[in-house]
Amino acid sequence: MSFPLALTPAIKETNPMAKADPNSTTNTSIFDATSRRNFLTSAAGVAAGATAAVPALALPVDPIFAAIENHKKRNRAWFDLEQAAEARPRSVKRSDVSRVSVAATQAAWRMARTRPTTVAGAAAMPAYIAPTRSPVSSN
Fold first, then answer.
1. Residues 62-113: pLDDT tens digits?
2. Does residue 128 fall inside a structural domain?
3. How far apart (Å, rounded) are the C-alpha atoms in residues 107 and 101?
């Protein structure tokens, strides 16, 4: 009888899989005496101030945080200049307002093009933008 390749009947193996022999397996725990001793030695060294033996953890710096801060700064400068121009129209040049406005807009575009590299950065961008997208702004 001939079967297509995809429809071949299952063939019972004549040589079953070998079973594990207790003499050939290792019986070590993650929490054996050696690892506890190493942990305690490291913990004691850190507590004593010997941090040179333990490498410092370098947290990644997410570029989105700098972009958000830059946008906040530029946008605040634009807002303050607009307020000053409304309060004292002759004291502020329109060219200054325009220049600061362009800087704020460029900072917004830089922020929008910046890709977060951490989970915290990915959460920070929408959290920063969300209040400005509400129908009634608190600013």
1. 999 999 999 999 999 999 988 888 888 888 888 888 899 999 999 999 999 9
2. yes
3. 10
For the chain, the domain total comes to 1
Q: 90: domain range? A: 63-133
Reference 82, options 71, 69, 93; nearest CA is 93
User: For residues 67, 82, 97 and 89, what is the CA-based torsion angle, rounded to 10 degrees?
Assistant: -170
Residue 124 has which token pair?
């920070």
Task: Tally the residues of the chain.
Answer: 139
**In this structure, is residue 106 part of a structural domain?**
yes
* In-domain check, residue 94: yes
Q: With 0-12 CB in 10 A as exposed, 13-18 as middle and 19+ as buried, what is 111? A: buried
Kindly state whether residue 79 falls inside one of the protein's structural domains: yes
What's the rounded Cα separation, in Å, for the pair 42 and 53? 8
SS3 label, residue 53: coil
Calculate ∠ Cα 25-31-37, nearest 5°.
120
> If you count DSSP H runs as helices and E runs as strands, how many of each does the chain have, helices first?
4, 0
